[in-house]
Amino acid sequence: MSELQQFGTPTEEGPIYDENYFLSQFGEKLCFKPPNFSSTLWVFWSSTDQSSCPSLNSDKIEDQVRSVLHDMKVMELRVGTPGILIQFWAPVIIDGQRFLTTSNQPFALTSIDEILCSYRKCSVKYKFNVKEDLGFPAHAFRQKLPLLTPDLRYFSKQEHPWWRCVSNSYLQDLYAFPVFDASGQFCTGIIEFVAAPEFFPRFGAIKQSFHNLGALNDKPCILNGLKFFNLNAWDEIDKAFEVLRKNLELPLVVIWVPCRQCSDVAYSGIPDKSCTSFYENSVQVLHAVTARSSFELRFIDLHLKRGQGVAGKAYLSRNACFCSDITHFSFSDYPLAHLARFNNLAGSFAICLRGGHTGDDDYVLEFLLPRNETTGYPQTLLDSILATMKQHLPSFKLASGQELGLGLSVEVINLPLTQAGVSVDHTSPHVTAIQDVSIKASYGGSVIKFKLSRTSGMVNLEEEIAKRLRIRSFRIFYWDEEGDKILLPSECDADLRLCLETSIRLGITPIKMLVELD
Question: Which residue range forms the structural domain that includes residue 365?
Answer without folding.
Answer: 231-425
